[in-house]
Each structure stands twice: as structure tokens, then as C-alpha cells.
UniProtKB/TrEMBL annotation:
Protein name: Inositol oxygenase
Pfam families (UniProt xref): MIOX
Keyword Cytoplasm: yes
Main location: cytoplasm
Keywords (A to Z) from UniProt: Cytoplasm, Iron, Metal-binding, Oxidoreductase
One GO location term (cellular component): cytoplasm
Cell location: Cytoplasm
Domain of life: Bacteria
InterPro entries membership: Inositol_oxygenase
Cytoplasm found in the keyword field: yes
GO molecular function: inositol oxygenase activity; iron ion binding
GO biological process: inositol catabolic process
């Protein structure tokens, strides 16, 4: 299995956490519209370049190709711990602000849930939600792994961040793709919609047989901010999607705000998580 990382030209973020920091600032509760407008191309050149690439290259055809490549889960069998250790090899030595490993970030999310007495399935979801970022270790560029997700095959919403960059996407000139419903039926349900490719959809495929529906929505749509924060694309949603929306919203603050500077003590926490993983997952999962 290759662990090659995509070329720097396709990785404009200094590190993967730069996207998370952008999201935290953008969606922090109580921010005014004026403060939100600070998150533009001038203030965030790395993030802007990331989204320029993301919006240009995430075509419907690209999504279909990547789903065929990865959603068959042919990358081998790993336990949850092994997957987390594999993700730990995604290291950026240029980041001076944190020495936390990827696994420690996962533990911060799940431990915040545990501290609030969230159900055990949700704590498990918190730990696994970013494991799909191992796509970077398969050689995928950053813009194909993280970022706000959006439907392909229909008109773009102006509620997707940096919507002006969609003009460079070949799908922008496809008249069928640029109608309200595009290739979809009204209220068809999000499970019928081909979302832009990334770690959300990938980790959903890995986990879809093991966690409850609420958890699967958290995994699959936690980066679909245009929907769960701005109410866009409701015309594609069915009643199940709307019923699950509160679960996605409940998950989101843990994803955005759980990072801290205190390192979780893995040795102390491991017995709890050993038991938790045994409750929900087989010893080895297909990736």
C-alpha cells in the first residue's frame, strides 16, 4: 500500500488543521456578519487556494471515479487502533503550534463527548469521524479529502464557501447540472445525492454496518455546512434527512471546539476504548 502524499501544488494548506481552524472561526457562535466577512481570500490565502482547487476539480465525474476507487474498501483490513496509528503518520513538521498527534485529536473529540455523558455510540463516532483523512496517505490531494462538502450534479448553492470558484468547474457549463434539481428528483433524499468526495463519505462507507443511523449521518454529513448550518439543499432532502439534522448539529460543536493543548493520556484511556470498540466494531474492518 502506498503512503505517498500528493504534490505540494495540490496541498495549499500548511497543514490539515488549517481547514479546521478556518471552520472554527467561521462558525463560532455569536459571530457577527462583519466578522464572518473577514474569512475571505485576502485574510486566508491558503484556504482560498484550497477551495479554488476543490471547487474546480470536484466534478460529478470525478466523484463517481473516486467512489468507484475507494468505496469498495479494498485497502486492507485494520482495527480501529491500527487505522488511528496509520493516520498518525500524517504528520506536518512545519506546524509550530501543536505537537498533538492525529490520534490525540480524535481522543479530544471523543473525550469531550464522554465528559458530557453522550451515549457510547456517539463517543465511538467521535473517535472514528476523522479516520477517513487517511485518504491523504493514499496519495489524494487535500482538496479531495477535507473541505465543505456539496452536492454534485445539480446547481451550486451560494451558501457553499467561496461559491465564485465554481465558475472554473466544467460542470458549471453543463445546463442539466445547473438546474435546481439537476439529475435528482425533488426530495429524493441525501443518500441518493452524489456529494463531493472526501473523508466524510469514505468513513461512512467503512462504518455503515456498525453504527446507528444518527451516527452515520454525523459521519457522512458533518462537513455539509451549506445544509446543516445554512439550510441549503432542503429541496433534495426527505423526511429522514430532516429528522437526522439535529444529530448532525449536535455533533458539530464537538468537532469544531474540542481541540485543546492538554494531551489525552492514551495509556489511561486505552482500556475504556478497547471495551468501546469491542462493543461496536469487529476486530478488523475493511478500509
Amino acid at each position: 500500500m502506498s503512503t505517498a502524499v500528493a504534490t505540494p501544488a495540490h496541498n495549499p494548506l500548511g497543514d490539515m488543521d488549517e481547514w479546521d481552524e478556518f471552520l472554527e472561526g467561521r462558525y463560532k457562535e455569536g459571530k457577527t456578519e462583519t466578522e464572518f466577512r473577514q474569512y475571505d481570500a485576502e485574510a486566508n490565502p491558503g484556504v482560498a487556494e484550497f477551495y479554488r482547487l476543490n471547487h474546480q476539480f470536484q466534478t460529478h465525474e470525478y466523484v463517481l471515479g473516486k467512489e468507484k476507487e475507494y468505496f469498495g474498501l479494498k485497502r486492507g483490513m485494520k482495527s480501529i487502533w491500527e487505522a488511528a496509528e496509520f493516520l498518525n503518520t500524517l504528520v506536518d513538521d512545519s506546524d509550530p503550534d501543536t505537537d498533538l498527534t492525529q490520534m490525540e485529536h480524535l481522543l479530544q473529540t471523543s473525550e469531550a463527548m464522554r465528559a458530557n455523558n453522550e451515549p457510547r455510540w456517539m463517543v465511538a463516532t467521535g473517535f472514528v469521524h476523522d479516520l477517513g483523512k487517511c485518504l491523504c496517505l493514499y496519495g489524494e490531494p487535500q482538496w479531495g479529502v477535507v473541505g465543505d462538502t456539496f452536492p454534485t450534479g445539480c446547481a451550486y448553492s451560494d451558501q457553499v464557501v467561496f461559491p465564485e470558484y465554481f465558475k472554473a468547474n466544467p460542470d458549471y457549463n453543463n445546463p442539466v447540472f445547473q438546474t435546481k434539481y439537476g439529475i435528482y428528483e425533488p426530495n429524493c433524499g441525501l443518500d441518493k445525492v452524489k456529494m463531493s468526495f472526501g473523508h466524510d463519505g469514505y468513513i461512512y462507507e467503512v462504518m455503515k454496518n456498525y453504527l446507528p443511523m444518527e451516527a452515520l449521518y454525523m459521519l457522512r454529513y458533518h462537513s455539509f455546512y451549506a445544509w446543516h448550518r445554512h439550510g441549503a439543499y432542503d429541496h433534495l432532502c426527505n423526511e429522514q434527512d430532516r429528522a437526522m439534522l439535529p444529530s448532525v448539529l449536535k455533533f458539530n460543536p464537538y468537532d469544531l471546539y474540542s481541540k485543546g493543548h492538554t494531551k489525552p493520556n492514551l495509556a489511561e484511556l486505552k482500556p475504556y476504548y478497547d471495551d468501546l470498540f469491542a462493543e461496536f466494531f469487529p476486530e478488523k474492518l475493511a478500509w
